[in-house]
Design a protein that fits this description.
Elements lengths: L5 H11 L8 E4 L7 E6 L5 E6 L12 H11 L9 E5 L2 H4 L3 E5 L9 H4 L4 H19 L17 H16 L5 H12 L8 E3 L8 E4 L4 E5 L6 E3 L2 H9 L23 H12 L6 H24 L11 H20 L5
Antiparallel strand pairs: 1-2, 2-3, 3-5, 4-5, 6-9, 7-8
Helix pairs in contact: 5-9, 6-7, 6-10, 7-10, 7-11, 8-10, 10-11
Length: about 350
């Protein structure tokens, strides 16, 4: 099993995770394109989830297991649905890299129109309403009260992010792509005023939450590796990257909303604004930022696949990450041009 040294990991699980009974089976959960996620099943049928960094070289500060474990443990004390954090192994000697374990949560990941078919039309609307409500609840969390006040700097979020992802691009790029540099320049020139400070999930979308298909409720928010403190509208704009708009030619393969029955993105924004009181007039800026950052991330995943650092996942269309980088960069430019005054 790539990514799992079965004997020492099994010994650690039995010694450190309450209710974990050896021997264990490990299955790579499809969908993880950065940190590797495994379903762990004990001899008694009890299930857990184990997260570890990707194989091979990773960028500095990325894939920090202790940080991700800390975040879900803290958020788990609020009303935001997350898996229960069960344990953290910080010793590389056990598995070659740190990892953490969390509870297994039932639900489906709506990562395409085929998965949307599991929900009745009324459940699709309910799922989109609950998705944006959970995001509003996350953005309302008092970061100091749950011990995350020192997680990151609070102000200048987008400016810092543009600098950070520009550096990531320089370290990960496999070719020159002028659109990436142009978007970075425009984002830096048109920085909006940050509206408060919140937990910013960083990758919030249907593809990173579990949903109860019977009632259309989010049962757990997953993949917190990009989480930080910052501008809440970055999460709202990022949702727009993965939300079907009949007036836009852009459809992402892992977006379930083209199946129909979900709220429109406009209605999603209205519901969020009503819940939070935030001004969304510049949301296209944040959509552009989300597209651009996703382009950089896609290039990083593509580079890791080229270097064999993502494990054996034969079902992956590696070239889609290369073309995805190009498409997202162009979409970011289009979103910036739609801003007033452009």
């Amino acid at each position: 099993m790539q990514g799992i040294d079965i004997a020492p990991v099994s010994q650690w699980l039995a010694a450190n995770i309450p209710g974990a009974v050896a021997p264990f089976t490990f299955d790579l959960i499809a969908g993880g394109r950065s940190n590797l996620t495994f379903r762990v099943t004990g001899a008694d049928g009890n299930r857990f989830v184990l997260r570890r960094p990707p194989l091979g070289h990773v960028l500095a500060t990325a894939h920090d297991m202790a940080r991700e474990h800390r975040i879900i443990a803290a958020v788990g004390t609020t009303g935001v649905p997350v898996p229960t954090a069960l344990g953290l192994c910080s010793e590389d000697a056990v598995n070659g890299a740190p990892f953490y374990v969390m509870a297994y949560v039932d639900g489906v990941v709506l990562d395409g129109v085929e998965r949307a078919a599991l929900l009745a039309p009324e459940a699709r609307r309910a799922a989109s309403e609950h998705l944006i409500d959970v995001l509003a609840d996350l953005h309302a969390v008092d970061v100091d009260a749950i011990g995350l006040g020192d997680l990151a700097k609070r102000e200048g979020y987008v400016e810092r992010q543009v600098k950070r992802w520009s550096r990531q691009w320089e370290q990960s790029k496999t070719r020159e792509l002028p659109a990436i540099d142009e978007v970075a320049r425009l984002l830096g020139e048109r920085l909006p005023q940050q509206q408060g400070v919140s937990i910013a999930h960083g990758d919030y979308r249907f593809g990173n939450v579990l949903v109860d298909p019977a009632v259309g409720r989010v049962t757990a928010v997953l993949d917190w590796e990009l989480c930080t403190l910052g501008d809440p509208l970055a999460d709202v704009g990022y949702l727009g990257v993965y939300w079907f708009d009949e007036q836009s030619p852009h459809v992402r393969a892992n977006d379930p909303t083209p199946a129909g029955g979900f709220l429109s993105y406009r209605d999603l924004l209205h519901r969020y604004a009503t819940r939070t009181g935030r001004d969304l007039a510049d949301i296209d800026y944040y959509v552009a930022f989300g597209c651009w950052r996703l382009a950089v991330i896609s290039e990083g995943v593509y580079a890791r696949y080229l270097h064999g650092a993502m494990g054996a996942q034969a079902d992956v269309d590696v070239e889609s990450y290369k073309t995805g980088t190009e498409q997202m960069a162009e979409r970011a430019l289009a979103s910036l041009r739609s801003l007033k005054g452009s």
